């Protein structure tokens, strides 16, 4: 059996039962990493998913259902990772939710939930993962920000604030660990066709009385010059690069994969 880059290492990917998180988890599993899945969904489907990934890539997998808005549940998940796998070597902070409304109409509970899940959860997982990484003098913290960590869009105040926050948190974490083998970087995707974005596409098609295909094109043409969605597999390949020796000196970057969105 050929040695894979992440053999013997463990990756925790939050929000990994679908979409971007699942794409990244699969890419890391293909490099030999054991995977701790986290996210919501049907218990039977989740079990089938993580067992299927274990079988496909010949690795160990587990699942923890921590609610990423609750620090105590995050602590329980990190403790579980220590007990099951001896810690987390690659931490991918991906869990996220979205709500669209103007500032004066934004529901306060939605603001609080978005900040908790999209920003504060990354602080909690990272603070708990770092001691183990520093002890081994190797670790990768990969924060899934968004192109909205670099630019704004109307109606998305909480999301944009959280994602800008993630980019800032990434820089500080990278600087604090600059003299170690622990790196921290952010990936800033543009439109990715995840269940979250599909819902926005469907809502738009219903609102404008167009086909789903037309709604997709309209959504992309507004922001993403390539006119193509970013794929979870492309984001997974970038996460793998961040884990590679070639990225040892890639520290504190916010790397946008956005079809040209932020270049405009």
Automatic annotation (TrEMBL):
<dbReference type="Pfam" id="PF00106">
    <property type="entry name" value="adh_short"/>
</dbReference>
<dbReference type="InterPro" id="IPR036291">
    <property type="entry name" value="NAD(P)-bd_dom_sf"/>
</dbReference>
<protein>
    <submittedName>
        <fullName>3-hydroxybutyrate dehydrogenase</fullName>
    </submittedName>
</protein>
<dbReference type="InterPro" id="IPR011294">
    <property type="entry name" value="3-OHbutyrate_DH"/>
</dbReference>
<dbReference type="InterPro" id="IPR050259">
    <property type="entry name" value="SDR"/>
</dbReference>
<dbReference type="InterPro" id="IPR002347">
    <property type="entry name" value="SDR_fam"/>
</dbReference>
<comment type="similarity">
    <text>Belongs to the short-chain dehydrogenases/reductases (SDR) family.</text>
</comment>
<dbReference type="InterPro" id="IPR020904">
    <property type="entry name" value="Sc_DH/Rdtase_CS"/>
</dbReference>
């Amino acid at each position: 059996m050929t040695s894979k880059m992440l053999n013997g290492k463990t990756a925790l990917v939050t929000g990994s039962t679908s979409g971007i998180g699942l794409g990244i988890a699969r890419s890391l599993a293909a490099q030999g990493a054991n995977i701790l899945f986290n996210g919501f969904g049907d218990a039977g489907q989740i079990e089938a998913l993580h067992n299927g990934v274990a079988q496909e890539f010949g690795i160990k997998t587990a699942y923890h259902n921590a609610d990423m808005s609750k620090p105590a549940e995050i602590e329980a998940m990190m403790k579980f990772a220590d007990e099951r796998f001896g810690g987390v070597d690659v931490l991918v902070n991906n869990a996220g939710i979205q709500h669209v409304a103007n500032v004066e109409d934004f529901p306060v509970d939605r603001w609080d939930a978005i900040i908790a899940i999209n920003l504060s959860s990354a602080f909690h997982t990272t603070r708990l993962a770092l001691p183990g990484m520093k002890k081994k003098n190797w670790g990768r913290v990969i924060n899934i920000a968004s192109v909205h960590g670099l630019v704004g869009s109307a109606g998305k105040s909480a999301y944009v604030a959280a994602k800008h926050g993630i980019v800032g948190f990434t820089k500080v974490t990278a600087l604090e660990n600059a003299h170690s083998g622990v790196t921290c970087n952010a990936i800033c995707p543009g439109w990715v066709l995840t269940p979250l974005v599909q819902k926005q596409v469907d809502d738009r098609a219903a609102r404008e009385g167009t086909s789903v295909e037309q709604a997709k094109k309209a959504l992309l043409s507004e922001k993403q010059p390539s006119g193509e969605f970013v794929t979870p597999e492309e984001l997974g390949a970038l996460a793998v690069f961040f884990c590679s020796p070639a990225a040892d000196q890639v520290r504190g970057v916010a790397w946008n994969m956005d079809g040209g969105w932020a270049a405009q």
